[in-house]
Write a structure and sequence with these properties.
Number of helices: 3
Strand content: under 5%
Shape: elongated
Low-confidence stretches: none
Largest sheet: none
Oligomer: single chain
Structural class: mainly alpha
């Protein structure tokens, strides 16, 4: 029986990569929280939901960070602004 050497150069393990500038093989998907079934309703009266999308300085978190789709982000921003005007937030 011959023993085979492991070829580390051709291994697809991402830990063996030495360069910081190479793209990793790991991929992840971002799903909009409001586009699934039984999603919470975006409403200016739902304060606990709106506070998750506001920073400590009362600025709206961008959709790149919050992973919300474009249409839902616009609706979310509109409802946050309504709540701020009414003094709920």
């Amino acid at each position: 029986m011959k023993k085979r050497k492991k070829n580390f150069k051709n291994s697809k393990n991402s830990l063996n990569k030495l360069s910081l500038f190479q793209k990793s093989d790991a991929r992840f998907s971002r799903k909009c929280r409001f586009s699934v079934k039984n999603a919470p309703v975006i409403d200016y009266k739902n304060v606990s939901l709106l506070q998750k999308y506001i920073t400590e300085t009362n600025k709206i978190i961008t959709s790149k960070i919050s992973n919300v789709s474009l249409g839902k982000q616009k609706k979310l921003a509109r409802e946050i602004k309504k709540a701020k005007i009414l003094g709920i937030l």
